[in-house]
Write the structure tokens for this entry.
Amino acid sequence: MISAEQNDRMTRTGPGTPAGALLRRYWQPVALVEELEGERPLRPVRLLGQDLVLFRDDRGRVGLVDRDCPHRGADLAYGRLEHGGLRCPFHGWLFDVEGRLREAPAEPDNSPLLSRLRQGAYPVVERAGVFWGYLGPGEPPPFPALDPFVAPATHVFAFKGWIECNWLQALEVGIDPAHASFLHRFFEDEDPSAAYGRQFRSASSGSEIPMTRVMRECFRPQISVEPSEHGLRLTALREIDATRLHVRITNLVFPQAFVIPLSHDMAIMQFHVPIDDTHNYWYAFFTSFGVPVDKATMRAQRLELYELPDYRPRKHRGNGWGFDPYEQRTRTYTGMGEDINVHDQWAIESQGPIQDRTREHLATSDRAISANRRLLNRAIDTVERGGTPPGVLDPAAAAQLRGPVTVDGICAPEGWQRYWRDVDASRRAGCGWWVASGAPTSLVAPVGGAASAPPARPAEAGAAAPGRDGPADPRG
């Protein structure tokens, strides 16, 4: 348990808050590029508790400015896109993408306003199908050369979804390896070959065993957490039998993202971006190391559950997240359908708008949650002292930060530490865009010498295995 004051310190991100000051040191996803398509390329956005307008001017430049006109506070989301900028319909004041006042037509030609007045404006760049904004002090940091930012557009697909809760509890579900065996449990498996674009439906690398079976029957993983250049590396080991071990490597990319495998050839990097203290968007980047992403299929799959223009979920608190008690008895652990985003959404939204962490009791499976909170608090302290938080890099360091590595596979227990490194290195060596980038194949230090000793069994009595002592079927 933590105090209410500590909880506020980590969760509240508006202007002037400790966590808000930290998150403003990083580029933040603002909108999907497709949201500025159409005849009127303008979107009101809310980010870190600030109301902004994202627009493309008639010269093709993209701007991000404060939403209230500095004249008398009218709403610039209703502005006119013309003459190289955004014009307020109230008195015709025209602002460019950098916030400079270009025209004030009711004022004298020599008005000092034209040289003195600036609207709040923020740097914007486009990366991996998303517009990113920087709301912090000074010059924005360079983008690190992480997988979705290095891959060509053909091999990256971006999507987003609205969540009605605080950003931190949304992030924490993604760094919790144990929950997948329960929250995302399916009582029957599907053909992995038909699993394209669907999480937990493909087979683990090096096998034909569906992830759903492994997660369902090996429900007590041995979890370890270690610092990495990205933030934290999470390892979850599940013993299948005496000769097979399931190895799942995932990551926290500090401060707001996690990276997990979708399949052998595809990984997901998911950011949780505060809209305000009680709402956030998830932005997911699907990066393929194999063939180009089938974006039409991926988008159609997700639009079955999310509505435009705001990407709000069709299943939500108002309709009980689609809960069906019959389904809960017969098909899924939650009774909320087969899309795991809905499962996660229920888990985090049902905690309340901001989780009351004074009432929680963390357990051994929550190692990554505890580690991330320590990292988050240290970073907040660093910013308050005027220092540079982790992940804010100089250009040389940003260009060298690659990956991260994520693996879901099955191997012999002996040498598993070498196995996941080799799987990732082999995947990258066979990836055309990765080889063309000139990056090294191996992103983590090799395991030297002979094959490593087999992992110790979990202290909590060992993991169950397919065909062995799995959990009782909740259907009765």
User: Anything to note?
Assistant: The longest strand covers residues 231-241. Confidence is low (pLDDT under 50) at residues 449-476. The two ends are 35 Å apart (CA to CA). Residues 225 and 368 are 6 Å apart (CA to CA).
